[in-house]
Design goal:
It contains 2 helices and 24 strands. By secondary structure, it is mainly beta. The chain has a single domain, classed as Hexapeptide repeat proteins (UDP N-Acetylglucosamine Acyltransferase, domain 1, 3 Solenoid). The strands form 5 sheets. Strands 1, 2, 4, 5, 7, 9, 11, 16, 19 and 22 form a 10-stranded mixed β-sheet that branches. Strand 23 and strand 24 form a beta hairpin.
Length: 225
């Protein structure tokens, strides 16, 4: 299974690269986000970052709408855009140039640089890699109906996460179509596309296309055409 951190993310494309030090799987970072924000925030250059609350640091170059809500334990990196009606509930790291849009809610997340969650998205207990994109209405579902701990499933393989809340891991350049639902514990490889309205679960390899829950195909090598 290629689901280790280095299989998903370019760690040069996040202010939170040290969060992943010593970890194997990307979801192992989820319980560490809050404390990491506190440690990192104290090191940020006050010439570039404004401290807006006990544990909130916002880059002076970020574009934050007055109507956006930014809760506690947050870092908004340079040139990020937080648009009208965005709800950053708590424990969020928003990367350089990332977009958090109208009615999008974030909770306990890391958005790498250039991530787009621009329209009516819920992203909870999740990590979105460099240039990942959530289409309008796409959400991460982060709690199972039976409230049991989440198991990552890759074919016959099972990895116990020990986490009751775990939305999705999106590799760099993952594209999630409009109104798609990523079920708890979904892991999407880098450069993989998910069609609109699809319900996704389990591990989806890099460089694939998810057409529906039963049709998952490798992308064609454009250089070979």
């Amino acid at each position: 299974m290629n689901i280790c951190i280095e299989d998903f993310f370019d760690l040069k494309e996040t202010i939170a690269s040290e969060l992943f030090a010593g970890l194997l799987y990307p979801w192992e970072a989820l319980p560490l986000i809050r404390d990491f924000i506190v440690r990192l925030g104290k090191t940020l250059d006050p010439a570039r970052f404004e401290k807006r609350g006990a544990h909130v640091w916002v880059a002076k170059s970020a574009d934050i709408f007055d109507s956006a809500f930014i809760g506690d334990y947050c870092i908004i990196d340079e040139e990020a855009k937080v648009r009208h009606g965005a709800f950053i509930r708590e424990c969020a790291i928003v990367g350089k140039g990332a977009t958090v849009g109208n009615s999008t809610e974030l909770k306990n997340v890391v958005l790498f640089n250039q991530v787009e969650a621009p329209h009516y998205n819920y992203v909870g207990d999740s990590i979105l890699g460099f240039h990942a994109h959530m289409g309008a209405g796409a959400i991460t579902s982060n709690v199972k109906a039976d409230r049991k701990n989440i198991v990552v499933k890759d074919g016959e393989a099972r990895i116990e996460t020990g986490l009751r809340k775990f939305g999705a891991m999106l590799g760099d350049y993952a594209e999630i179509g409009c109104n798609a639902v990523l079920n708890p514990g979904t892991v999407i490889g880098a450069h993989t596309n998910v069609y609109p309205t699809t319900s996704v679960r389990g591990v989806i390899p890099a460089h694939h296309i998810v057409k529906d829950s039963t049709v998952i195909v490798p992308k064609r090598d454009a250089s070979a055409s």
